[in-house]
Design a protein that fits this description.
Elements lengths: L1 E4 L5 H13 L3 E6 L4 E6 L17 E5 L19 E3 L2 E3 L5 E5 L6 H14 L3 E3 L17 H14 L2 E5 L6 H5 L4 E4 L7 H10 L3 E4 L6 H13 L5 E5 L15 H10 L4 E3 L1 H5 L2 H13 L4 E5 L17 H19 L3
Helix pairs in contact: 2-3, 2-10, 5-6, 9-10
The structure holds phosphoenolpyruvate (PEP) and manganese (II) ion.
Length: about 350
């Protein structure tokens, strides 16, 4: 930790801080500049937050951590790209993945027809919400356990792997018996108890970005999962809240590049929640690929206008198939070396 002393502080007051650093069990190394004095506190990094109490001293400007707070998710701890193996489907490190399916599982007919359509177009993972986090309690809340059963049926029929959201700690065990990847939704991105329970399951986890979550907070959310023994984590950028209302959210493609820079874990982009408009999904997919995303999570519905949730942002089968085709040159371009 670095302790920055306020300008015009007397030597006696600086010595008071040095003495406090020593009292806390750290080795103080002051650096006296012409304008600024800083004290490096050397010692046990696992307890260095205790030095933050020095902020209470009037002569202290600020106490700063020199190391990043996220460690296990950081490239410093794992310089290469992590590859997540979802029962044979590899994600990351040059393995691009297409996850697609309806926002919500609505019926057997709806889910199975979608599963076949997205598989034919190139998807290897089927998405579908069984437990839905809806803003209003009067909106469709998902089929729950029946939705999970239908997802298992779709897996049996098509061989697609399954990703579905876990809304609550109470559902982790049940969802794990049907899902290959646990989706942690934007509204639960900082539900740390849920993150820990999902981590303990050992299943691969897709961690959405919170509605108004800063990038370092998102990285720390993933750090919870890794710190609890599960390194099979993917980030999912799904747009953030901004002043703009033309789009439902603002898809933050800079965050994709930033997280890829900071972390070895794969980053997936969800253009559907990301812009909330079916007519923009295709362009967002191209942008995501160009930005280095390791995969896409796209909402696809047989009849978007009749969907029980997020109808405005779901693409139909034909749209999905042509979108995937149009993406090919973009995928090839990012794999090419100059
Ligand atoms: C979804 O994927 O349908 C969903 C609810 O996503 P988010 O948590 O990103 O809003
Ligand atoms: Mn949705």
């Amino acid at each position: 930790m670095i302790i920055v002393i306020k300008p015009h502080t007397s030597r006696a007051q600086i010595d008071e801080v040095i003495a406090e650093v020593q009292k806390l069990g750290y080795d103080p190394r002051p650096i006296f500049g012409t304008e600024l004095t800083v004290i490096a506190a050397i010692g046990d990094e696992t307890t260095h937050h205790r030095l933050e109490s020095l902020n209470a001293m009037p002569q202290v400007e600020k106490v700063m951590a020199v190391q990043k707070r996220f460690k296990l998710v950081s490239r410093e701890s794992h310089p290469g790209n992590s590859i997540i193996d979802v029962d044979g489907v590899k994600i990351g490190g040059g393995n691009f993945v297409l996850m697609a399916g309806p926002c919500s599982v609505e019926s057997e007919e709806q889910l199975l027809s979608t599963a076949h359509a997205v598989k034919a177009a190139g998807a290897t993972i089927l998405r579908g919400g069984a437990f839905k986090p809806r803003t209003s309690p009067y909106e469709f809340q998902g089929l729950g356990s029946e939705g999970l059963r239908l997802l298992s049926l779709a897996k049996k029929e098509t061989g697609l792997k399954i990703i579905t959201e876990v809304l609550s700690e109470r559902h982790v065990e049940e969802v794990c018996t049907h899902a290959d990847i646990l989706q942690i939704g934007a509204r639960n991105a900082q539900n740390f108890q849920l993150l820990i329970e999902c981590a303990k399951s050992g299943k691969p986890i897709l961690l959405k970005r919170g509605l108004s979550q800063k990038i370092d907070e998102w990285l720390l959310g993933a750090e919870y999962i890794l710190a609890h023994g599960n390194a099979n984590v993917m980030f999912c950028e799904r747009g953030i809240r901004t002043f703009e209302t033309y789009t439902r959210n603002t898809l933050d493609l800079a965050a994709v590049a930033a997280v890829k820079k900071e972390s070895h874990l794969p980053v997936i982009v969800d253009p559907s929640q990301g812009c909330g408009r079916a007519d923009l999904v295709r362009a967002m997919c191209k942008g995501a690929v160009a930005m280095g995303a390791d995969g896409l999570l796209i909402e696809v519905h047989p009849h978007p206008a009749e969907a029980l949730s997020d109808g405005q942002q779901q693409v139909d089968f034909a749209d999905f198939a042509s979108l995937v085709k149009e993406l090919q040159p973009f995928l090839q371009a990012v794999r090419q070396t100059v």
